[in-house]
Amino acid sequence: MTGAVLSCPSPNHGPRRDGARPDLVVLHYTGMTTAEAALARLCDPAAEVSAHYLICERGRVWRLVPEALRAWHGGTGRWGGVRDVNSRSIGIELANTGAHPFSAPQMAALRALMRGIMARWSIPPARVIAHSDMAPARKSDPGPRFDWRGLACEGLSVWSDATGQGALWGAFLRDAGRFGYAVGDNAPETVLNAFRLRFRPYARGPLDGTDCARIADLAERFPVDRDGPSA
To answer: Do residues 182 and 135 touch, judged by C-beta distance below 8 A?
Structure first.
């Protein structure tokens, strides 16, 4: 069912503040039982939430808010120096409860949509993040079943397979901050959980050498302030 993007305008939007342009893509899951239920909520003025796009399990894509406008998808949070994430991002909702895999048609539609967005706004792969990255104490989407590695293999996000020995909290938190996590706003364990949710979704236990090696690798190759201005 992938193909044309369907228009379903949501009233829940506003202008991007201070003349901001989108330089982030934030990925979400809806956490609702059906795409149609999510669509209704995202277009309900009483809900005061929205996204730029919603993609259902069958690959159908709805455009809810024009990309030039500010959708209400991120809420409170931060990535690097960006605190008003909504003014600086394109938000994409994926119909998924968080408890099941993302379908092949849905992921194909997401990849096609992201290629267009990233080309139009010159957004690099390192600026594609999870909702849980920018709001680690509040959010877990798009969750452990989302295929970040596959997305990175197509140049639409970033990944690391580094391994190492030795675990030092100071080094981990330093590198997590360099990569983009709001270290000063969250407990160390919260930052670790958010990092693992994306880069080691089935890792358990205390901080270890692989956590430290992967975040060091990511921070070295993709320091957050290199690819986007702070605001």
So the answer is: no
**Is 189 among the catalytic positions?**
no
Q: Are residues 134 and 219 in the same domain?
A: no
Give average pLDDT by consecutive 10-residue segment, the chain, 231 residues: 83 97 98 97 98 98 98 97 97 96 97 98 98 98 97 98 96 98 97 98 97 98 71 43
Domain residue limits at 21 = 5-153
Q: Which of 36, 48, 67, 93 is catalytic?
A: 93
C-alpha dist (Å) from residue 80 to 4, 67, 77, 84, 107: 34, 22, 10, 11, 27
Total structural domains within the chain: 2
- pTM of the full structure: 0.96
| 160: in domain | no
